Amino acid sequence: MPPVDIGERLRALPGGTAVTLKLDPREYADHYFAVLNATLRDVGTETDAHTIYVTVTNPASFVWDLAQALDVSRDRISFVDAISHIMMDYRNPLPNATYIESPRALEAIMLRVEYLLRKNPHPRSIVVIDSVNSLAIHNPPDLLTEFFHILLNMLKSRQVLTVVLEVGEEESSPVETMLNLLVDETIDVAREGG
Amino acid sequence: MEVPPENPAAASPPVEGGLMAPATALERCVTGIEGLDNILSGGIPKGNMVLVAGSVGTGKTTLCLEFLVRGAERGERSLFLSVTEASDKLIQNLSTFEFFRADLVTNGSLVFVDLPVIYDRLGLEHEELSEDEIGILIRTIRDLVRQLGVKRLVLDSLTSVGYRIRRDERIRDFMLRLGLELSDAGCTSLLVSEIGPVAGRYSLHGVEEAIVDGVVLLWNTRRQGDILRVLQIIKMRGTSHSQAQYVIELTPIGLLLAPHLKGGRMEGP
Predict the structure, then answer these.
(1) CATH class of A5-193
(2) Which value does ipTM take for this structure?
C-alpha cells in the first residue's frame, strides 16, 4: 500500500511549483502509467486544468492513446512533440499537438510552451516534461541546466505547475543534481506509489 | 569626505524593467510585440527611425507587419511602403496569422502602398535617382504621413531604395531628411535592411546604421546543424535595452522571444 497517492500530492501543490517525479527504470511501464494517471487525470481533469505535455521520450500520438484510455478529453491537453520529427514519424499529426524538429531545439520548446499558454489561457495550467533523461541524450549538461533554469522560472512566474519526469538511476547524475537545485520538490514514484 | 545625497534614488539612474533606464523617460511607441517591448524597456522611443537588418528568411518583414497591425489595433494609423513585394501578396500572407484583422485594412487603419507605383506616378524613371528626385520622394512620403496621420511606418526595404540612390552621401542625406520629417510627424518607423552574413555590417551602404536611432539585427545561427532565428537589439537611442540575444519564432499569434541558450559558450552573429 503506497503511503501517499501521487495525484493527491500533486493536487495539493500550489500553482508555480516545480516538481520532479522520479521513476524507477526497473518498473518503468507501471510507473509511467501511474504518472500519466496522476498528472493527466487526477490533476488535469479533476482540477479543471489545461495540461501542456512536452514529449521527448515517446511521440505525442503514443501519449495521446494512453490519455484517451484515461478518459482525458482533447480540449484538456496540448502536446509539444520534440521527438516525432527526428523519428521521421509525423505523417498523422494530432490536431492538439505542435511539432518541433529536434529535441536539441530547446528554445523552440520554451517558445511552444509559451505559445500554448497564450493560446489556451486557463486559471490552472500544468506543464509536464517527459523527460529530463531524453533531453539529456540530445543536449549537453550546461545547455540543459540553462534551459531548465529559464523555463522553470518562467513557468513559476506564471503560476504554472511544472512536472518533470526523471528516470532515476542508482547513482546521482549531473542532470539529477541540477534538477534538485531547481525544483521545489521531488517525488519518488517507487516509494510513494501510484 | 563624501556627502551622501538627500534622496539616494535621485543620485542613481532609475531601474526600468530590470534594466538601467535614462534619467528622463521618453514617450514610447509600444510595439505590441510583448517580448520586444520587454527587452526595449517598454517600446521604441516615439519618433525613432529603426533599422531592421537581417539576411533572407530571418523574419524581418513579419516583425514589421506585426508592428503595424498592433499599432493599427491601438488606433495608430500604420503605413507599409512596399518596394519588393506587391501589397496584395503581403496581405494574403498576413492573413495566415491569427493576429491579423482584415478590417484594419478596410477601415484604413492599416495602409499598404506600393512604392513602384509612386515612382511611376512621380515619373521617377531613372535607374539612379538624382538629388531632385530624392527630394520629391521624401516630400511624397512626408505628405502621405501628414495627410493620413500616420504614426507607424515601415519601408520594406531601404536596401531596394538604396539601390536607386547608390551614392553614400545621398543615402545619408535621404535618411537624415526622411528621419527628420517622420520624427516631426511623431511617426515611428522601421526600415528593412537586407544584409548578407557579414559581421558588424547592417546595411547596403554601411552608413545607414550610423544615422538611424536604432538597429534590430536578425540572423540565423546553427546548433549542431539545427537553424535558430536570433534577434538582438544592437542600438536604440533614448532607452535602455537588453543587449542579449533572443531566439524568435513566428507563431500564428505573433512573434515570440526566448533567451538564446549558450550553455557557457560565447558566440557571434
Answers:
(1) alpha beta
(2) 0.89
